[in-house]
Design a protein that fits this description.
By secondary structure, this protein is α+β, with helices and mostly antiparallel strands. A hairpin with a 7-residue loop joins β6 and β7. The protein contains 2 helices and 12 strands. The strands form 4 sheets. It has a 5-stranded antiparallel sheet, covered by helices on one side.
Length: 220
Amino acid sequence: MVNSNKNGHTGFTLIELLVASLILAMLITAIGAVLAAGIRTWQTARDHLRLEAGGLPGLAVWERDLMNAEPFYAGSDTWTSGDRLPLHGSSDEIIIPATVVASANYDGFVPGYVRYWFDPRERAILRETWLFDELPPERAEIWIENVDSLTISYLDPDDLAASTPRQATGAGKESWDNEVELPAAVVLTLKLSASGAPEQTWRRTVVLPRAIRQRGIADY
């Protein structure tokens, strides 16, 4: 309501001003809450994408190393006879026999090892490679960061569904120490988290083609 005083001036009453101020304050609060929620959602999505961008490429290389696993024979003078290079693994570490980049003493790729393991102090998966006739390096490369835990399991042929080899039907083994055969598949389960992002669980069942072909489970 607009009132007129005895001098002819018009204006709002005190109650009207208070009501208008209250409505304005409520609008500002609502707009601020919407903006804050939008910013939090954007930050969560950004952290989520950053977590994936930092980890998925490394996980893809890990899967490739597993798929290229090859139980070489390596001796002092030849790679076709001598001691076998087996795959060894536990629930938080795996050593894969594979071709690795040669050192200055060799040309191209040669048999060697690729090792992945979880370091809880670094909250990271570490990776290192070395040739079959050398010792492991003193320092490893941080491969996947923001990792809270790692669980590795190893599947025999009986742990895979006959019709769909990539789908595990059993829990698998917590370790692998078979000196002769490769596991039919390896299951990697990683839990990751970063500031502002919800925890993520990545699970990959990686079939080892060499083992699958040798055992006649499926055509690869």
